[in-house]
Amino acid sequence: MSQKKRILSGMRPTGPLHLGNLLGALANWVQMQDEYDCFFFIADWHALTSDYDDTDPIEGYKKEIMIDWLSAGLTPEKSTLFVQSLVKEHAELFLILSMITPVPWLERNPTYKEQIGQLSNKDLSTFGFLGYPVLQAADIIMYKPYGVPVGVDQAPHVEITREIARRFNYYYGNVFPEPEVILTETPKILGTDRRKMSKSYDNAIFLSNSPDTISNKVAGMITDPQRARRTDPGNPEVCNVFDFHKLYTAPDIVTEIDQQCRTAGIGCVECKHKMAQNLIRALEPIREKRAYYEARPELVEQIMIEGSNKARETAKQTMADVRAAIKV
Hints:
Elements: E1 6-11, H1 19-32, E2 37-42, H2 44-51, H3 58-72, E3 79-83, H4 89-98, H5 103-107, H6 110-118, H7 127-130, H8 132-141, E4 147-150, H9 155-172, E5 180-183, H10 211-219, H11 240-248, H12 251-262, H13 268-294, H14 297-326
Parallel strand pairs: 1-2, 2-3, 4-5
């Protein structure tokens, strides 16, 4: 039996996980566990790049994310689940890589420019924020993975990691393989207000939400803006609720709703109610597992520590290779 190829990815603990996180990454990770040797980490040092002025919530978010991961189907039996800050070698490799990474590479990073504009209420003129792609590169190449699963919009992040690995190898010899971009399917899903789903926009449906909370959030979702009255025909193609139906409602019912919407055979209130019930039903297994782990915080802590210890054994070997290469 051939050895599984290794992959690695992570999430920042900046808040509870929502449907966008589930569909954009987590569901893909769960499926990949049987095919790959998976390393998934909570990037708590990365949270400091933008939230350095208020670190109190991070510890709680780390535990919440791990519970969400376990509830969605990640398991320590199949994947190495760890916390970035518990593997101190990440900081050492970040320091070494920062010595060889040209500043213009960081300044041209599209996410850097985008977040500077979006987070104008925060002072992001810090070395940590400018240099976070170097820390990200250290996180990735530390484990010498075959690839990194990302959506198409995240592919540039992996490319700068490849460039940094290539530059290190040029100076010091072939220590790091260049990780491949593993593009993953990301279903179309927006927040309740049709913007990108985000806790900062207050438009997210969280994996931890109760059925009543989900129903209330769905009831407030924006539908076809041109459909002012119940008797007006609608256009499902511009309706966010219909996009959710395509994910959580049986295909034959989706076809029926499509036709009824276009002929005013169904109103938005009824349409939302149907979708909410299907969404609640789909998330029931996650809610049940979540209740199990919420009642066992010691088990969650144990999984985080044991996974981090396992990751650190790999990291120690990588840093031995790095030190031998740079002779420092």
